[in-house]
Write a structure and sequence with these properties.
alpha/beta; Purple Acid Phosphatase, chain A, domain 2; 6-stranded mixed sheet; 5-stranded mixed sheet; 35% helix; binds manganese (II) ion
Amino acid sequence: MAIRNRQTIKPPAFAAKSANHWQYFIFAASAIRVWLVCMGIEKKRTYFASDFHLGIDARLSSAERERQLVRWLDQISKDAEALYLVGDVFDFWFEYRTVVPKGYTRLLGKLAALRDGGLPIYFFTGNHDMWIFRYFEEELGIPTYRKPIVRELHGKTFFIGHGDGLGPGDHGYKFIKKVFANKVCQWLFSRLHPNFAIGMANFWSGRSRAANPEAQHFLGEDKEWLLLYANRKLETVEADFFIFGHRHLPIDCVLKNQKSRYINLGEWMHYNSYAVFDGETLRLEFFENENGQVFGK
Ligand SMILES: [Mn+2]
């Protein structure tokens, strides 16, 4: 077999042209991407919010707040890549095998529509709605988490959870949480008639709020218990962001490694605060509230 002289093997004429075409293609793709980002069409933002406490009235009534949340969801759906609802969406929820609390139709409908449209949504139970069982998963296709999770998003590590029962102290609550999470206690509670059981729970929920007036200021780096928890957790988990709710105060604080941050999502009874991560930076923002303030900076 004749061996072809190397020099005679030239790249075919179209190769040079196709390299050019390739460059054009890359240029066009980046231009389109810039345009999509400018238009807000490319979905690349991850949103986090918690503590809507639907069911009780605050600055707005619960019904008004629900509509406000739907407006917020409409707004973020334009560029959302994912949505994390980090607990206490409802002020109280108990789910029977065949019965769920009435109300919240607009929020549930909007979440269903977004989920059906392909938006990944992740739901965490909080201390007020820990008795959400399989409804969100089965009816809305939204996975429900009862404990903090660690997620990798665009190369950053997120530690995400509601935050109740974490950090030092609060032994009373930690005990009650164990009772509430107990399957036998849940079964017994579910034997009660909903009118009685949910009425009693709403009364309890209101009382617990009255007994624990919210501390509406930043307590300092040595006293904010979720910050202490995050600093401690850094010894075993290399997270860039610790995202919690529960504290009802929008907080953004650099942790002891001078790199990671503790973010508290605040709440929607007064602040309407949420966090948005664009793939590189994360910040707290406020919806329909021009007086929002971030603590701990
Ligand atoms: Mn809460």
